[in-house]
Amino acid sequence: VAEAGLTVLLEVCERAVEELGSAVPQAQLRALLVVDRAGCLNLGGLAGALGASASATSRLIDRMQAGGLLTRDRAAVSRREIVLVPTESGRRLAEWVRGQRRAALGGVLAAMSQAGSDALARGFAEIAASAT
What is the DSSP letter of 39? Predict the structure, then answer.
């Protein structure tokens, strides 16, 4: 039952950003959202969050940098460490994606009973808390 509901929510989120088409591949979008949420992240942190190897993540970052979504900067704490930071256009895209998803999910929640919507919100809050 939970998997069926999750499948519906994932499809709603995917449809919400369909207009991007192939302009921003799904892997890049996922990486952008991870980096944007963190503010800045090093390659190892992004690779871990994506469950990908460092070499595959590095190639992904190269493509994202070429596309104007991310930049590589020196870390403030350690000048030797390189961190990934969303560009202004990358931040705007991440914000747009989250807004589209929120609107789509709002439609799903509006179609639910108040009790169901409240229970789902509590469940999501617990999932978010357990993931951090």
Answer: S
- What pTM was computed for the model? 0.83
Q: In what order do the strands lie in the sheet with 82-86?
A: 41-42, 82-86, 70-74
Kindly give, in sequence order, each residue whose CB lies less than 8 Å from that of residue 53, ignoring residues fewer than 6 positions away: 47
Q: 29-54: per-residue pLDDT in tens?
A: 999 999 999 988 999 999 999 999 99
What span, in angstroms and rounded, lies between the C-alpha atoms of 72 and 18? 28
Contacts 24+ apart (CB under 8 A), 24-32: 24/67, 24/69, 24/93, 27/60, 28/60, 28/63, 28/64, 28/67, 28/69, 29/93, 29/97, 31/57, 31/60, 31/61, 31/64, 31/70, 32/64, 32/69, 32/70, 32/86, 32/90, 32/93, 32/94
Residue 42: other Cβ atoms inside 10 A: 16
Helices (H), 17-70: 26-38, 43-50, 54-66
Structure tokens at 46: 């992004």
